[in-house]
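Please fill in the sequence for the structure shown.

STRUCTURE ENCODING:
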């Protein structure tokens, strides 16, 4: 089977969509299938093309057996709604124009969160008369409204109609959460064509590591209890709550033991850095994104991982992919996301849950884990045990089976 995958994020980018797509495609190649990925020059989230790449009309490479075709797109940083829409639309057009040159395709996959990539996949499916698969990573445009990027408007209502059109036209919808499946079913989409395949973790890379000694010294972390946020610093994440907790803890007896690491980039990073500077937070360290092969070294610095999204009903339906990486690394989670992901944290016993945007509860959770060695070690052991339930190889196998059934139908 020849699988064509359209995605605007792919390694060497290190965000969740890039990692999931690469790890799934790699396993499909190992299973004997041909995989072609159409993507753009790596630039997320800074809007700067990575060294060794150019934003040209067409360039190809092979990554672990995957044929990767990179097409030109309008590149901008991950901020500014209008510019980002132009970025998405340019990739949509170029991905479609590249498709006639890719022969012998049996199925095409378009991945969200934004809809323009899936639009391209649908048109390609019509052109080639092959099944169209919608990989649903986010309820877009509902999430746009949730973060305040756009208010309800004619444009939003048009995007919602487009969203439903694409769901109906898809031969298969691969949802990363059960909540998304329930949402689509309530809106009239046939549940029989929706497969839930959650995010997972590459256990060959993410497993318990000793702390990276040189980095510990570099950032002054020896003897400190390190809490970290690793990922995109976006509008949805409400990371001001973590800064507020850092401020509260440093004013409390014994609070000097805590350090907070923010690793990554995104639309809110500069504002967060300015806020931390204005608050004179000497217990907070900001680190820019690092190459994929180095991420695990920085994970190893953490005693606990903080996962947080704004307090909004939309975010009760999502499962942040970093949750599974925490499990793999054996790092307990302090989880500020309500809904399905919080249920996983509690079911697997891998951390403590706090109310989103509640800095006081976050402080209490940090103090509880830091002050109770028995609790801390129990959470670590539960993380390591839970990781096997979300092995990325198994998730890739399940998605491949769904693709085979779809092509055979």
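FILLED IN BY: designer on duty
SEQUENCE:
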């Amino acid at each position: 089977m020849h699988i064509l995958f359209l995605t605007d994020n792919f390694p060497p980018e290190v965000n969740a969509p890039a990692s999931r797509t690469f790890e799934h495609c790699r396993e499909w190649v190992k299973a004997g299938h041909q995989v072609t990925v159409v993507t753009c020059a790596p630039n997320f989230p800074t809007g700067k093309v990575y060294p060794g790449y150019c934003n040209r009309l067409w360039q190809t490479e092979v990554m672990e057996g995957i044929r990767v075709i990179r097409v030109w797109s309008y590149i901008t940083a991950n901020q500014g709604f209008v510019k980002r829409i132009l970025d998405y639309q340019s990739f949509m057009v170029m991905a479609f124009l590249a498709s006639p040159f890719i022969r012998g395709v049996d199925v095409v996959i378009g991945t969200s969160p934004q809809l323009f990539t899936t639009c391209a996949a649908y048109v390609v499916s019509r052109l080639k008369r092959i099944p169209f698969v919608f990989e649903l990573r986010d309820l877009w445009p509902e999430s746009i409204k949730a973060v305040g990027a756009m208010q309800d408007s004619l444009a939003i209502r048009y995007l919602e109609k487009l969203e439903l059109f694409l769901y109906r036209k898809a031969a298969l919808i691969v949802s990363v959460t059960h909540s998304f499946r329930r949402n689509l079913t309530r809106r009239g989409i046939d549940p029989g064509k929706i497969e839930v395949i959650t995010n997972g973790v590459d256990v060959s890379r993410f497993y318990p590591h000793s702390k990276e000694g040189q980095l510990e010294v570099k950032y002054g972390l020896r003897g400190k209890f390190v809490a970290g946020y690793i990922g995109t610093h976006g509008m949805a994440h409400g990371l001001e709550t973590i800064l507020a907790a850092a401020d509260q803890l440093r004013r409390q007896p014994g609070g000097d033991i805590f350090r907070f690491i923010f690793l990554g980039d995104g639309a809110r990073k500069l504002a967060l850095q300015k806020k931390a500077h204005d608050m004179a937070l000497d217990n907070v360290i900001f680190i820019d994104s690092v190459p994929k092969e180095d991420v695990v070294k920085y994970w190893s610095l953490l005693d606990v991982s903080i996962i947080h999204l704004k307090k909004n009903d939309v975010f009760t339906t999502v499962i942040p992919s970093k949750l599974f990486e925490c499990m793999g690394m054996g790092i307990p989670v302090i989880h500020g996301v309500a809904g399905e992901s919080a249920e996983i944290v509690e079911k697997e016993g891998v951390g403590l849950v706090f109310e989103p945007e509640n800095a006081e509860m976050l402080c209490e959770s940090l103090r509880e884990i830091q002050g109770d060695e028995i609790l801390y070690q129990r959470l670590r052991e539960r993380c390591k045990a839970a990781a096997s339930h979300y092995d990325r190889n198994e998730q890739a196998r399940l998605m491949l089976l769904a693709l085979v059934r779809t092509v055979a139908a």
